[in-house]
Design brief:
Elements lengths: L15 E4 L8 H14 L4 E2 L18 E7 L2 E2 L1 H12 L3 E10 L2 E8 L6 E2 L2 H23 L10
Parallel strand pairs: 1-2, 1-3, 3-5, 4-7
Antiparallel strand pairs: 5-6
């Protein structure tokens, strides 16, 4: 109720800008991403875009010391690609966090720079990728999750 009287938690470390697809906002995967960044870069000062809703935060990229781009299944969405370009133009140190599914588990690979082989999607390709990705995950939940329980690690 009196939230304005609460002291804001101090954030320590270098400023890290996280760029992730919107379909990962407020998920377990997003929490895992923030923990990995904290562990690898030693910073609590991370701009998590889901904290700002769908408002653009790309104007903060030039002030960042590190930029972490999230690639899902070897693809950068159009939003992540645009923000990555801004980071490279401003000389921000870039890292990539690739997320893939290996069997029933999610695998996270943290790398410096942008590894070869990651696909940069256009706006149209991003929409098609999101639809197929979300349909596949939802279909698995309906067929297995409700009936017998899914052992797949959810996003």
């Amino acid at each position: 109720m009196l939230g304005f009287l609460r002291r804001k938690k101090e954030k320590h470390g270098s400023f890290v800008y996280l760029s992730e697809p919107t379909f990962l906002y407020h998920t377990r995967t997003e929490k895992a991403i923030v923990e990995i960044i904290h562990e690898k870069l030693g910073s609590e000062n991370i701009l998590v875009p889901s904290d700002y809703g769908l408002r653009s935060t790309s104007h903060r990229i030039p002030e960042a010391e590190y930029f972490v781009a999230v690639a899902v299944l070897g693809k950068f969405t159009s939003l992540v690609s645009r923000e990555l370009k801004i980071a490279e133009e401003n000389g921000v140190e870039v890292y990539t966090l690739e997320i893939a599914r290996e069997g029933d588990e999610l695998v996270y690979v943290f790398a410096e720079g942008v590894p070869e082989g990651i696909e940069h999607l256009s706006d149209g390709e991003t929409m098609a990728f999101m639809k197929s990705f979300l349909n596949e995950e939802f279909k698995d939940f309906l067929t297995h999750g409700l009936l017998v329980g899914s052992h797949k690690r959810s996003w």
